[in-house]
Amino acid sequence: MKETTAMDQDVRWLQRAKSFDKAFERLRDAMERGHLNELDRNGLVQRFEFTIDLSWKVLKDFLEFKGFAFKPSPKDTIRLAFESGYIHDAQPLIDGLDIRNILSHDYDGVKFKTYEPILRKQVYPALNVLKAFFDEARSNSNPI
């Protein structure tokens, strides 16, 4: 197995951040739609799942690049980013992970109606703030 170097981690977090950007933009498009029919709702949920999954994975890669050694579970990664001062509010992202798990088993759309307001008012804005953090971190990095 190939040993991971700091340069590999740098490239990995930057590459994954680009994927996060694309997923976030697709989520933004879905969030800006007016009334959602069933197909739109399913698309929004799928885009949300991609985006929330990439959010913690980019954080994991970023923290590893910064030298942290930890067990990379989604919630622990978000908590460590918060405790280390990289993000200022972990709870909406942690809630987003829980909502992702709930909505992935929402076959009739009932749960979506319950969680849509939380997704729109808390989780999506937190993802937007996280995107701004990634943008700032990239602008401050000096890739080789």
What do you see in this structure?
With 144 residues, the protein is mainly α. It starts with 5 loop residues before the first helix and ends with a helix. The chain has one domain (6-140): Nucleotidyltransferases  domain 2 (Four Helix Bundle (Hemerythrin (Met), subunit A)), CATH 1.20.120. The chain is globular and about 45 Å long. The chain has helices at 6-31, 38-65, 74-83, 91-103, 110-140.
Care to give the gist of this entry?
It is built from 5 helices and no strands. The chain is mainly α and 144 residues long. Helix content is 75%, strand content 0%.
List keywords for this structure.
144 residues, Four Helix Bundle (Hemerythrin (Met), subunit A), globular
Beta content comes to under 5%
The number of domains is 1
Number of strands: 0
Provide the structure class.
Answer: mainly alpha
Distance between the termini: 24 Å
Radius of gyration, in angstroms, nearest whole number: 16 Å
Helix content: over 70%
CATH topology: Four Helix Bundle (Hemerythrin (Met), subunit A)
CATH architecture: Up-down Bundle
Given the C-alpha coordinates, what overall shape results? globular
- Give the CATH H-level superfamily: Nucleotidyltransferases  domain 2
Oligomer: single chain
Largest sheet: none
At the first level of CATH, the class is Mainly Alpha
Mean pLDDT across all amino acids: 90
Weakly predicted, low-confidence segments: none
Order of helices and strands: HHHHH
Tally of contiguous helical segments: 5
Question: How would you summarize the topology of this molecule?
Answer:
Elements: H1 6-31, H2 38-65, H3 74-83, H4 91-103, H5 110-140
Helix pairs in contact: 1-2, 1-5, 2-3, 2-4, 2-5, 4-5
